Amino acid sequence: MTKAWSGDIKPNLPNCPGPGPDSKSVDLKVHWDVQYCKPKEWGLNDLYETKIDAFNCNGCKRHDQDREKVAKGLVQKKIGEHWKINSKSPEGGYGCSNVFVVYGIKLTLKCAIVEQNHEITYEAEVYPPGVGEILWQADPTIKIDKIDGSINKIKIKGLALGTCDLTGTFKIMGQDIGSANGQDSAYYTATCKITVIKCDLRIWNGGSSFDLGPANHNDQTPDEVDEKDEESIGAYILVNCDDDDGYPGDFNKSVTPDMDQEGPIRKEDNLAKLEINAVSYSPQQAIVTLIAPSEDILIKFWRNKDRSQKFDLIEGKKVFDLSIQAHRDLLEDLYIHGLWIEGYAPSWTEKDVTIELRFENKCGNDIQVFTDKVKATIVMLELGAVAYREMGFEGIKELGHTDILYKYFGKCTKDELKKDTNYEVIGSYFDYTKPLSPSIKIENFYNSTNFPNREFWGIFRPGNITYIDRLKILKTARYIENNGGNIKYCGMEVVKYDGDKLDGSNVPEIIDKISNLRCDGLVEIIYELNGINVWGRKVQSGATYNWSILNFTNEHNDPNINITNFNWGFAPTPTILPTLDDDNWKKFLTPATQCGMADKYKGSEWQTTFVKIDWGKTKPKLE
């Protein structure tokens, strides 16, 4: 039924293939998207007035009498019928027995790209539309599913990376009018290439260890974010404000946050890995773009885990033209080794960092676009800030108790960062069963926030604290943890020391003089040794305050707190609770006045730099 060009029939329909090896032809024994009609001289009605082209029966028996006059008819653009010789037509008369060849079936397939493990709707072009069926074939690189009710549309799912042939055979069946069982069919086969690619970002949570030197106290392996959570939860990355290559015990060495240093960082462990996969089997005409927030606002990109070889984006984009080999090579290297994300400033809200990979492929006039996105939250741990709650002793609980948020031991995930049990605090604690025992202890932060029957007041610090300030605070706290084993508690004064004056040439010399510390005294010492004012008594002749506990020790130590039935050296009598005789204590340094919770005389008698931070132990607050 596929025949060479013959007769006067010319396939000038726009969608029909022309003569030659790409043409398929069928005869009029079947229902086609053409119809031949009686010659015009037979008397046509309006149904046949729409002309497409003429055909010539080339002298069939019916037309032997006058070929020139009646041998030509009209071809119309609708399914038509061929009548066998001696069979009646619907209009009467007899049909021609000669076989007429009409060109009118075509299938066009366009090359396409599908993403691995994803699905696209693929549409073939067929002529005539609305009839016949397509038989599809492809290798296991892709999966094909037909769409109910559609002749030319299918679902294609990418299974394996690579390129395969997609073959479609367009088939139309026809019915011979003169025979109940006689069927003819026409076929047109076309093939195209389907390429399965990856447009995929994979992201890991950042490292969770906040270190003051190469010794890693929190050796947790960061987890990859599950693909289903890449946008709904995202990755969590710490602001890289620790000092992984610092010197925690050497106070002659300055502290520098890792994110502010030049060159690679020894033992750097806070960056988060980002893997980019968009080059395998990608066509050369494709464009791949990495899109991220404006550089150096919330995050930075590095080629290496040790924070070496900065990877710059231009106006938040990095474009890879895959027709350029150097671009393909770089994209391949990023897939193998990954990029590394550094947290540079805390997020304002969760998941406010979006990183997008965009893959664009142009095929003819068509452009296919694939995207993948991951989200991240940049978290600042409020280590070095100070936690306050009511005091444990009934009767004087409003004086308060304080600890310094000191260490984090969990992983860098949302659920772990939210848990109080993953944090530790350092404080000075009074053990009335052993009143002369060492007071400096490391406790779980949960004991502060969930002390039985006591209100937790929150976390406080100066509003303008810097990352360097924070490192100095933690470094000094580390020295006290390691070297303050002989420091005992004191109840009325905030600090006691050996010698006439609390001074020295450096931090260790001053701390080594201290014999006793109250909990709020520990905060004053650690902060004000590093030049960070906390609490100061007002100078009555003006509007200034005597801030530093080193220079104004007596003003901080003023013990005018009147308590009945309590001796700091002994356990309180269970049946006789201590009581505060008046509110005169609110004029002096206590944990409650240090943080400003008891503020009756704030500004008139004393001042504090501490403010409550609404977000708590992490910024942003994790809901």
Short description:
With 623 residues, the protein is mainly beta. Helices cover 11% and strands 31% of the residues.
Detailed description of the structure:
It contains nine helices and 37 strands. The chain has 623 residues and is mainly β. The protein has four domains: 25-103, no CATH class; 106-197, Sandwich (Immunoglobulin-like), CATH 2.60.40.1080; 200-381, no CATH class; 386-619, no CATH class. Strands 16, 18, 20, 22, 23 and 37 form a six-stranded mixed sheet that branches. A hairpin with a 6-residue loop joins β11 (142-146) and β12 (153-158).
Helix vs. strand class: mainly beta
**Main pleated-sheet profile:** 6 strands, mixed
Poorly predicted runs of 5 or more residues = 1-103, 174-183
Mean of all residue-level pLDDT scores: 81
Gyration radius, to the nearest Å? 42 Å
| Helix count from the secondary structure assignment | 9
End-to-end CA span: 72 Å
How many domains, in number, for the residues?
4
Give the DSSP E fraction (strand runs of 2 or more residues). 25-35%
Extended strand count? 37
Oligomer: single chain
